[in-house]
Amino acid sequence: MATFGLPCLKSExxxxxxxxxxxxxxxxxxxxxxxxxxxxxxKMDAHINLRSMVTRKKKKSSLNGNMRTAGEKSTIKKxxxxxxxxxxxxxxxxxxxxAPTLDIRQAIISEKVPELAAAAATAALKEWGGPLEDITHxxxxxxxxLKQDYTLRLIVGSTSGGSDMPxxxxxxxxxxxxxxxxxRVALYHQGCFVGAAVLRLAKDLAENNGxxxxxxxxxxxxxxxxxxxxxxxxxxxxxxxxFGDGASAVxxxxxxxxxxxxxxxxxxxxxxxxxxxxxxxxQGLMREVGLTFGLISEVPSLIAKNIEAGLQDMLDGSxxxxxxxxxxxxxxxxxxxxxxxxxxxxxxxxxxxxRASRKVLAEYGNMGSxxxxxxxxxxxxxxxxxxxxxxxxxxxWGVLFGFGPGLTMDTVLLRIVSVFAY
Length: 422
Known about the structure:
Elements: E1 2-5, E2 15-18, E3 24-30, E4 41-43, H1 44-53, H2 60-74, E5 78-80, H3 85-90, H4 102-128, E6 136-141, E7 151-158, H5 168-176, E8 183-188, H6 194-208, E9 212-220, H7 234-242, E10 246-253, E11 265-274, E12 282-287, E13 290-295, H8 299-318, E14 329-332, H9 337-347, H10 355-364, H11 371-385, E15 397-404, E16 408-416
Parallel strand pairs: 6-7, 6-9, 7-8, 7-9, 14-15
Antiparallel strand pairs: 1-2, 1-11, 2-3, 3-10, 4-5, 9-10, 11-16, 12-13, 15-16
Helix pairs in contact: 1-2, 2-7, 4-5, 8-9, 10-11
């Protein structure tokens, strides 16, 4: 069984997850460290005004109204963006709808994505407690040493960057000063489900490589797809209203040393399912204009229709019998309000079971692959503040969901390892 620790949303906070086979995990979400100025926290009105600035004047009135409506329906109150007025003034081509700006965007991202990822990873490693030398694997989802015979791995996941070679996984090792023998895995341009998928991959690496410690990082930024609005593409408007920037990191390992390593959750079991005939429901296409998104309005309903079957399949595979869905804690990827509403109804969950996912959506927007780990961090912090008996709102078992293109559903079963470890 893999275990991991989870740092919190700010760079100075972090913590651990523990999985069934005791794989150590540390998760850190970073919301401040990568922002050059505090004004890059955008409340919804300010975010709409920024979009207005980059939209052609004759289009502004109707599109601003549509953007405001989308923003109100989203329940997002604010988000964090690397982009600001100064960056847009220096790169005006990015403000023109569908202008060929891939080179400009990629040049910025190639520098900034590794920086954001390294900042989140630093916080995760600090809370985890082990030395950098102990990290054996790096999983990069574009996104210190070990005291025992640990081997460090790195996984990096990111939808918004990663096309350059060498990629963010290489630069993270350089920025953190990790050993050149760290084994790296990069997951680029996969979509929002990767926050859950990375835990599945990290679990497999940790459980099948004795002494491994896997540093997993997810990082996303709007730099690749921020643009002006156009009434011909309303799915672009929805995406512009929904997404925010974020970075998170965890450390995962087996056979934890409780004297030196913080543990929060066990990763008990993880599965992935494709919903048949839905390959075109969510699309992210890399073109000369940057990354463009397309999605159909039926996405929340399609997820809800298949969620119970996917959940039960995961539980059957784990050998754990749980019939009362409200006896679990839930970390559901906050892909949007409609998705959370539909999942809540389909599983028969009490409204409070979606509290953490809804708060992350309201405070940060949809941060793609980084979102699910923000939700876990919110769960443990709220649980501590409320005096709950566990990090999971008083529950022993919990489920993490990731959704994305495919349509893909990743489901992870978690179990509490420690009560409060931060």
